Amino acid sequence: MDISVILLCSIMLLVIIFIAVRLAINPLLNKQDKIIPESKDFGLVKLRDIEVLSNSELQEVIELYQNKGVKKKDYEQYEKYARVLREVKEMGYFSDEQYSSKMNRLNNYFNVD
């Protein structure tokens, strides 16, 4: 056999072994559980970086802010629908009784008193 063929085969064998070991070790490396996108962290990652909050506390605080954002969006939808119903009533489509009934349903759906 030619020396260049042996050298080429040994290089290919080393590359295959390297890739196999790399693929086997990757799942075992310590990685952060969840990578938080910058747009969804509300700037709170800095509190973790300066060790004010732990990772678990940071996750809980971010979830609280996300829930607050969901509630805000729900309330904005409620206001939009209430405004539409009010405008339709002002146009004369609903009577006061119908409007009151529709608003009660809307309030019950969005849990607004």
What report would you give on this structure?
This protein is an all-alpha fold and about 110 residues long. About 70% of the residues lie in helices and about 0% in strands. The protein is built from 4 helices and no strands. α3 (about 55-90) packs antiparallel against α4.
Topology:
Layout: H1 3-25, H2 45-49, H3 55-90, H4 96-110
What descriptors fit this protein?
113 residues, mainly alpha, 0% strand, elongated
Derived from helix and strand composition plus strand pairing, the structural class reads mainly alpha
Q: How much is the radius of gyration in Å? A: 30 Å
Q: So how many helices?
A: 4
Number of strands: 0
- The low-confidence parts are none
Strand coverage percent: under 5%
Pattern of helices and strands: HHHH
Shape estimate: elongated
Mean pLDDT across residues: 81
State the separation between the terminal residues, measured CA to CA: 88 Å
Helix amount = 55-70%
Main sheet summary: none
In short:
By secondary structure, the protein is mostly helical.
